[in-house]
Amino acid sequence: MAVTLACVPDFDVLVIGSGPGGQKAAIAAAKLGRRAAVVDRTDSVGGVSIHTGTIPSKTLREAVLYLTGLNQRDLYGQSYRLKEDITVADLTARTQHVVSREVDVVRSQLSRNQVTLLPGTGRFVDQHTVAVRDAVGQDRLVTAEHIVIATGTRPARPASVEFDDRTVMDSDSILSMERVPRSMVIVGAGVIGMEYASMFAALGSKITVVEQREGMLDFCDGEIVEALKYHLRDLAVTFRFGETVAAVERHARGTLTVLESGKKIAADAVMYSAGRQGLTDELDLDKAGLRADKRGRISVDEHYRTAVPHIYAVGDVIGFPALAATSMEQGRTAAYHACGEPVHAIQDVQPIGIYTIPEVSFIGRTEDQLTDDLVPFEVGVSRYRELARGQIIGDAHGMLKLLVSPSDRTLLGVHCFGTGATELIHIGQALMGCGGTVDYLVDAVFNYPTLAESYKVAALDVTNKIRQIDRMAD
Ligand SMILES: NC(=O)c1ccc[n+]([C@@H]2O[C@H](COP(=O)([O-])OP(=O)(O)OC[C@H]3O[C@@H](n4cnc5c(N)ncnc54)[C@H](O)[C@@H]3O)[C@@H](O)[C@H]2O)c1
């Protein structure tokens, strides 16, 4: 039962958490003329994405690509390396710079939009009141007509494993590692595990990935996942699929990972990336009449409203897909709904970008999904080695796949692997979003030489196949 406010609240929209979802919710409300505020700890402004997630991990990846010369491998041979002995300081100097720049951008955007930043930790007192505890433990009570929970997630840490954040780490503490490990076990072959596996393998660490399932990234194109595995094996990554980590022991000379099968793996370090936990334990949700599930996640409806209609939740704290890009749209959508403004629902078809080395990105459905759904499709493929730009940049392994409906020639899926995949995917997204057909790609003139040309090559491939099938049917 929702409580009504007895007097004029301090804010129209109060957001807890200043990550991508929270920022966009507060800024959208402010742009609609509402009094908006965001609660966050001073050292966390910008959220998990800026401090321990997307921004530092992608900056680290760029440093790895640059320092190891991995992008130029096919141009200069395996031995090309900008620096023979890459240190943690080399890797983190740039990360710290980018993180602090991004925090400045968030602070400036909030202030330019007249969003009040309330420093501290927020927790519910009742359905319209949040207590904000500052750094010296003082509580300030703040009331609001609408509240948006955007507190994000943290890496899940199994109780059975003793983390020391030096040799047994998660994807937060690995960012403050003391040295590049000679060997490391990565637990979990999800997106985070594979991104770090490829970065450390590129740095020369001997990586063993332990994954309890028989495969990995099963939501991606199967051929691309095989290509990624091939590349990682080439960088000396060992996969242990169908194995579950039972315990991790710390010893003077490193770690011993014990698998349920009884096998043991010795390594300098272990990184856990076996899922994430919603940051809801400090919120006193029960005071607002709310509860989280056992993974700390809050359920919402299609407008991002929780069980209490004036309290919304957006971003990773509501679970899948837990992507910064989606969180921003959820924040904006929630704020518009709270302010009574019309807003389009977020499009069903959204791109996924996985920042492994090489990158993987896709939009729409996979071949397996289309086959399961009995949807007819044809495949057009382009390989970077056939493109002048692919040769110039030394990426001979990249590829782009178009999945096309033979009846109306619309795109059903686009799958990309290799340099620039996370950028290139947006050409396919734009075409799909506008309901265009593959014929546009056949007819369009692309800059030469570019990787974007792969769209034209794949489009010609698939339209030729469709033509042949049509001829055979006649
Ligand atoms: N680029 C991106 O899109 C990006 C980047 C980072 C994070 N994320 C998001 O962050 C979230 C969390 O990612 P994640 O990779 O930590 O989690 P995940 O849930 O995606 O993957 C964890 C993996 O660990 C395995 N696992 C769990 N316990 C295990 C054990 N004891 N032994 C062996 N294997 C075990 C699971 O089977 C699973 O495959 C996801 O929602 C992801 O989409 C996305």
UniProtKB/TrEMBL annotation:
Its cofactor is FAD. SUPFAM superfamilies: FAD/NAD(P)-binding domain, FAD/NAD-linked reductases, dimerisation (C-terminal) domain. FAD binds at K58, G122, D316. Residues 11-331 form the FAD/NAD(P)-binding domain. Transmembrane segments: none annotated. Residues 351-458 form the Pyridine nucleotide-disulphide oxidoreductase dimerisation domain. It is found in: Cytoplasm. Binds 1 FAD per subunit. Keywords: Cytoplasm, FAD, Flavoprotein, NAD, NADP, Nucleotide-binding, Oxidoreductase. It comes from the Bacteria. Belongs to the class-I pyridine nucleotide-disulfide oxidoreductase family. This is NAD(P)(+) transhydrogenase (Si-specific). It comes from Actinacidiphila alni. The lineage of its organism: Bacteria, Bacillati, Actinomycetota, Actinomycetes, Kitasatosporales.
